[in-house]
Amino acid sequence: MIKLKDVEKSYDSGAGKTWVLRRISLDIRDGEFVTIMGPSGAGKSTLMGILGMLDGAWKGEYHFLEHEVHKMDNRHRVELHKRYIGFVFQQYHLLDSLTVAENLDLPLSYRDIKKSERDGIVADALDRFQIVGKKNLFPNQLSGGQQQLVAVARAVIGNPKLILADEPTGSLHSSQGKMIMDLLKGLNTQGTTIIQVTHNDAWAAYGDRIIQLADGWIADGQSRATA
């Protein structure tokens, strides 16, 4: 599904180039559950932004399905993201001007789905994530944990081929975190490819393998996770 070859990203600074990612080469098969780990500043979120086609300022090759992402302009990358990818952001990225239900409807609105059918899908998601009572509230009326649940629900609601989850349980207590991880594992079992960033060893073990990043490099190959 994904093939990266020598992907690099840097920023210009007064002291010259500051490297964020160096020579990242990586293959991810369709249907895998991959965990990315590493210390703060290792480049994990930057790599997720590139995989999610939200960052175009990098060098190297990125093949996604049959698409050569490195040769695409920003508009086509955005279209590809909307079509295939669900993204759970570390800082939620819910739209403040939309209610919970409207935030959930947004990714569905990009597709050729009738409004009545979308309403049913949103209702099911609200029930599944136990946030029915929050459907008419705005993000600033929710706790951090509630916003995280909405963000995860929004990412998975359209049954994307690829889910990118950057610390998907960061604001949740342990039982909610396990619910989210069990949900992601269930989607993976049904064929969805999952790539997650986490610092939690228990959540990391849900994946098929672990990729360690350090100082922008892949540090320790691609070790198998142990359940």
Question: What does this entry look like structurally?
Answer:
The chain is 33% helix and 29% strand. It is an alpha/beta fold and 227 residues long. The protein has one domain (2-224): Rossmann fold (3-Layer(aba) Sandwich). The strands form two sheets. A six-stranded mixed β-sheet has the order 6-7-8-3-9-10, sandwiched between helices. Strands 2-1-4-5 form a four-stranded antiparallel β-sheet, with helices on one face. Helix 3 crosses helix 4 and helix 3 runs parallel beside helix 5. The two termini are 24 Å apart. Mean pLDDT is 92; it is low at 223-227.
CATH superfamily: P-loop containing nucleotide triphosphate hydrolases
Number of helical segments?
A: 7
Strand segment count: 10
Write down the CATH class. Answer: Alpha Beta
State the order of secondary-structure elements, H for helix, E for strand: EEEHEEHEHHHEHEHEE
Kindly state the percentage of residues in helix.
25-40%
What is the structural class? Answer: alpha/beta
Largest sheet: 6 strands, mixed
Largest beta sheet: what is the strand line-up? 6-7-8-3-9-10
Whole-number count of domains = 1
